[in-house]
């Protein structure tokens, strides 16, 4: 123990910081040597110091940066317009309005949350296989068709059928 104290006292604050990181990584990984990983982190930190910071003006002016920005904005807008947050928030009420009991509505909400987690894990695996662009476009297409189906279903539900009196037809 005293050897460790002596070694720590002989090091600078920068080296002590790395010693703390080294200790934490060593604890996290177990007995695996983490020197290579530490070196890789150090190199990446140095690259980040050297890399040029992008300003908001450059983000809007440069054509090569504008396209990724536009894609990110469209994805965020699509997520908001999908309404999934509202559906999750009001899911118990939605299930109650679908004539489920209070207990059944709560279980259905739990099931929906569990399905959300399962599909998130599946999508993480599919990203590696199919790629982000394919999954994104497939998701947008699915959202489009589901929105049309929901709109059509709501239109048919809101239309009241006309009642005809067929008693005088004889």
TrEMBL record:
| Pfam families reported in the protein's UniProt record | Sugar_tr
Q: Which residues cross the membrane?
A: 69-90, 110-127, 134-159
Q: Which residues form a coiled coil?
A: none
Location(s) in or outside the cell:
Membrane
Record's InterPro entries? GLUT, MFS_sugar_transport-like
One GO term of the cellular component aspect?
A: membrane
Principal place where this protein is found?
membrane
List the keywords (alphabetical).
Membrane, Transmembrane, Transmembrane helix, Transport
Output the Gene Ontology terms for molecular function.
hexose transmembrane transporter activity
Q: What is this protein called?
A: Uncharacterized protein
Q: Which organism is it from?
A: Manduca sexta (Tobacco hawkmoth)
Q: What is the phylogenetic placement of the source species in the record? A: Eukaryota, Metazoa, Ecdysozoa, Arthropoda, Hexapoda
């Amino acid at each position: 123990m005293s050897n460790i104290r002596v070694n720590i006292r002989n090091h600078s604050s920068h080296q002590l910081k790395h010693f703390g990181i080294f200790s934490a990584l060593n604890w996290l990984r177990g007995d695996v040597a983490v020197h290579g990983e530490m070196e890789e982190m150090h190199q990446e930190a140095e690259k980040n110091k050297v890399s040029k910071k992008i300003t908001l003006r450059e983000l809007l002016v440069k054509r090569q940066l504008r396209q990724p920005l536009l894609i990110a904005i469209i994805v965020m807008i699509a997520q908001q317009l999908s309404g999934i947050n509202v559906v999750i928030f009001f899911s118990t009420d939605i299930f109650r309005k679908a004539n489920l009991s209070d207990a059944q509505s709560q279980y259905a909400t739990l099931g929906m949350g569990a399905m959300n987690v399962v599909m998130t894990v599946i999508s993480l695996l599919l990203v590696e296989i199919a790629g982000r662009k394919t999954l994104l476009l497939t998701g947008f297409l699915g959202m489009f068709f589901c929105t049309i189906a929901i709109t059509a279903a709501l239109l048919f539900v809101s239309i009241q059928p006309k009642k005809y009196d067929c008693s005088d037809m004889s």
